[in-house]
Design goal:
Layout: H1 8-17, E1 20-23, E2 28-33, H2 36-45, E3 51-52, E4 60-66, E5 77-82, E6 91-92, H3 96-111, E7 115-125, E8 128-133, H4 140-148, E9 153-156, E10 159-163, E11 169-170, E12 176-179, H5 181-189, E13 199-202, E14 205-210, H6 214-218, E15 225-234, E16 240-244, H7 247-255, H8 261-264, H9 266-277, E17 280-286, H10 289-298
Parallel strand pairs: 2-4, 8-15, 15-17
Antiparallel strand pairs: 1-2, 1-3, 4-5, 5-6, 7-8, 7-9, 7-10, 10-11, 12-14, 13-14, 16-17
Helix pairs in contact: 1-2, 7-9
Length: 303
């Protein structure tokens, strides 16, 4: 049963009690919140996902609630919790929904060690996937949203999940987090996409989340072979410059974006080096997304 098959009133009641669970493929989450805006955005962005049965176990039980302090009466704050543990300081009430998404990312990065986890977007076309590892401000999520709504299958915007044994990429499809000017750009490019309400003055600037394409959600259990690694850098004065990286440079770049390679020890190192050895790696500097997509689909990768 998909979430959208629930009436909104039923969803609201279930979230208030912590009885709504969502299947995300490599992990499942049970989400609790009494906040109406969080319930509404969650319902909109996750409508295509399958519901986990009320009595079935989930990997993570998370909640977004008001902070219990005197400040809630004159400067409201909210907190994210995993079970009874609160890993972050409270944030302003206006950042409630982004905190839920960021908290879910933290749950995976901190606790899901059955896979090699890399901070980076990953998308697939013609059964071959490209990883886009990049630090904040590189334009990764804008590029990800552009490709995901232009015929590419989204596996993840934030977290590349690699099988330790097979080297295949597992989907972890979630809403795409856009920042600042990219929010209006994506709305202009794709008027029909569902975009959440905007949260201002966060640690990442102004943010909003974009609903992933339904096709990508329906393929949650379809793995993909990684064909290449692309390090993107949005650069206003360069239409498209492309540089090939050798294996050492590729390892340094990808390893610096890994969440848990060190924690996995030798197993993580072997998974990372195998991924590097089996792929090509390029670094691109660009200001034109059409040129980037043309390169990715018709250039050296011939996807």
């Amino acid at each position: 049963m998909q979430l959208k098959e629930l009436e909104y009133g039923d969803l609201s009641e279930k979230m208030r009690k912590g009885n709504i669970g969502i299947d995300l493929g490599v992990a499942s989450f049970r989400v609790k919140s009494k906040l109406p805006d969080v319930q509404k955005v969650f319902y909109e962005l996750y409508s295509d996902y399958s519901i986990v049965g009320q009595d079935d176990p989930t990997d993570f039980q998370v909640s977004i609630q008001h902070s219990f302090s005197l400040r809630r009466w004159f400067k409201p704050q909210i907190s994210f919790s995993l079970d009874q543990y609160t890993p972050f300081l409270p944030l302003p009430r206006s950042q409630a929904y982004p905190l839920l998404e960021w908290g879910m990312n933290w749950c995976m990065a901190a606790h899901q060690h059955n896979f090699l986890l890399i901070h980076g977007a990953i998308l697939e076309k013609n059964d071959e996937a490209l990883i886009f590892p990049a630090p904040p401000g590189s334009g990764k999520s804008t590029l990800c949203a552009y490709l995901a709504n232009s015929g590419w299958r989204l596996l993840s915007d934030e977290m590349t999940v690699i099988n330790l044994e097979t080297g295949l990429a597992h989907p972890f499809v979630r809403p795409i987090c856009l920042k600042n000017n990219s929010i209006d750009l994506v709305k202009e490019w794709f008027p029909d996409v569902v975009v959440s309400n905007i949260a201002k003055d966060t640690s990442k600037g102004t943010v909003a989340h974009v609903k992933p394409p339904e096709r990508s959600v329906l393929d949650l259990y379809k793995t993909a072979k990684v064909r290449a690694i692309v390090l993107p850098h949005f650069t206003p004065d360069k239409k498209l410059d492309i540089y090939t990286l050798n294996k050492i440079q590729a390892y340094e770049s990808l390893s610096s974006n890994a969440f848990n390679e060190g924690m996995l020890g030798l197993q993580g190192f072997k998974a990372m080096t195998r991924l590097i050895e089996q792929t090509d790696t390029v670094e691109i500097f660009y200001n034109d997304l059409n040129s980037v997509m043309e390169f990715l689909t018709e250039g050296v990768f011939t996807l």
